[in-house]
Amino acid sequence: MSAPRLPTQRRLIVPPSHDLTLDPPLGPAPGPPEDAPFLRPARRARVRIRRRGWTHRAVLALQIGGALVAALSGLWAGYAKVMASERLRVARVEVRGGHFLSEGEVRELLGPAVGENILNLDIEALKARLRASPWVADATVSRTLPDLVRVEIHERVPLALAEMDRLYLMDGDGALIDIYGPRTAGFDLPIVRGLARVDGETRRDHAARAGALLRDLGELAGEISEVEVEPSGDLRVVLRGAGEVVRMGPPPYRSRFVTFLGLRQELRERCPRAEYFDLRFRDRIYAKEPAEGSAPPAPRPVATPSDLPDTHEMPRGPRMEPLHADAGKEGV
Predict the structure, then answer these.
(1) If you ran DSSP here, which 8-state letter would residue 293 be given?
(2) What's the pLDDT at 155?
(3) Distance of alpha carbon 316 from the chain centroid
(4) Ramachandran sector of residue 233 (left: φ over 0; alpha: ψ -120 to 50; beta: rest)
């Protein structure tokens, strides 16, 4: 009996894995796998969008319109409530800068603003009402919630009394402010003459010249009693006290007037019969005296126009006595 036959063992040699990665395939890279034929539908179905009809559009428009009407109604109700609020009605008026106009007069100029809703105020219209007053040069108006209106006014300052058909208060720009009467009788101001019986343009020019003189003199204007504007534009000034008459031409006014005031007593002693003192020339003061043998002029309380021709040339003749003023006082 023969021995049993053992099975033959075979060894399978597997190449290492790195050989597979280092040796890429020579052919082209395989593309994405296609779907199997049984996974694709034979016919593609179209997706149809269902369009809504005019009924849906009408309903949507009505909904939007209703929302807008509701929003507008709410806004209008809120606005009406705010405008009718008693807390927002003007109850207080604060006035600043007023010296001649009282707070009551300013309230009258504001008109129906007091008691009106503060949000409904026309600020520009209120400014125009205030500036319409001849006393007001400029005005500003502001409001502060809930019920306060602030008014700041810049008043015209009267510097003279303009003599026309009657007396008027006049400021430094030559503007007429108010009629001189019982209400304004407390002003002790110089009188400006030469404004009557002339046309409007000449009147404005003469008033501006007189106003420029008084504005330039400042506090020294208290030494002046009257100012007469002559047809030539020169100024004939009557002083308070002894009543000396001074003639002045174009500016500067203050420096020449200060020089004259410094020599006033000396000039009065040297020229007691002088009709006027001429300050129209630089560093010189000329005294106009009456002719020899003529009676001295009677003192008059007011100034009268000069009988001499109006000229800016150097005066000549024996009746003019030059008095040299100190040049250093010219710039005082």
Answers:
(1) T
(2) 94
(3) 51
(4) left
Is residue 156 within 8 Å of residue 175, measured between CB atoms?
A: yes
Integer angstrom CA distances of residue 259 from 59, 143, 226, 329: 95, 51, 19, 5
Pairing of strands 235-239, 224-229: antiparallel
| pLDDT (mean) for 108-126 | 88
d(CA 236, CA 61): 86
330 by Cβ neighbours in 10 Å (0-12 / 13-18 / 19+) ranks as middle
Q: Which amino acid is at 156?
A: R
24-51 mean pLDDT? 58
Residue range 76-96: average pLDDT?
Answer: 75
Rounded to an integer, what distance in angstroms lies between the CA atom of residue 118 and that of residue 99?
Answer: 26
CB-based contacts of 144, cutoff 8 Å, min separation 6: 150
* Side-chain half-sphere CA neighbours of 289 within 13 A: 18
Q: Is residue 245 pLDDT above 90, yes or no?
A: yes
Q: Decide if pLDDT at 75 tops 80.
A: no
Which burial class, exposed, middle or buried, applies to 143 when counting CB atoms under 10 A from its CB (0-12, 13-18, 19+)? middle
Provide the pLDDT for residue 259: 94
For 135-158, the DSSP string reads TEEEEEEEEETTTEEEEEEEE--E
The 10s digit of each residue's pLDDT in 152-192 is: 999 999 999 999 999 999 999 999 999 999 988 889 999 99
CA dist., res. 195 & res. 296, Å (int) = 29
What does pTM read for this prediction?
A: 0.62
